Amino acid sequence: MGRDRAAGTAATGTTVDVGDATARYLLYGLLPSWFVPGLADWAMHRRTRIEDTAGTKESLIHTLMMAEVGVPIAFTLRYEVNPLLLSVQLAGAAAHEATALWDVRTAVRSEREVKPIEQHIHSFLEALPFGALSALMCLHADQVKSLLRGGQGDPDAWRLVARRRPLSPGYLAGIAAAVGACVALPYGEELLRCLRAARARKQGKRGKQLVGDDWARRQAA
Prior knowledge:
Layout: E1 7-9, E2 15-17, H1 18-33, H2 35-47, H3 56-78, H4 83-109, H5 116-139, H6 141-148, H7 169-220
Antiparallel strand pairs: 1-2
Helix pairs in contact: 1-5, 2-5, 2-7, 3-4, 3-7, 4-5, 4-6
């Protein structure tokens, strides 16, 4: 499951492995940069009081979107890129884009104000999966060709194969910690806040109904 490797010559005359440089960009540049707009988007939801407007529905949509991106990323960090993994990545990117449209429509149809700055943040969150996937496909052009051929001739095309050069435990631990701190924790707090607000509204309506019923009984007596 080799990958095409290209080398270029820098201005200093040193040889640069383009494949390694692109891989480092994906691992240490593009992937960590996903956390910044993600946190900014959560802050915008909190600022516009999502729990009192779009509520639990939109928060659950956010959870779905994170899964659509997070699952392909987790697989890519653990397994070799092959037709199966590329299919998972392509499906995740397509589903994420469709869900992003659903998310904005849900927010706009509610009382929550989606400001221009939030829309701009969304543009980063939508572009990052496609940027990462396009770079990865360039790195593994042989696997893209194999996918287009349906994986013919490759016994490993449609099964998960552990990375031959595993990523360091330190890097994986760092990414896991960042996901916990910048994704799971804030968006978990958002969902909990929405659930509590929905429960409070339900109890408030029930209380008003009981008061109304009591008043009606007194009038009837």
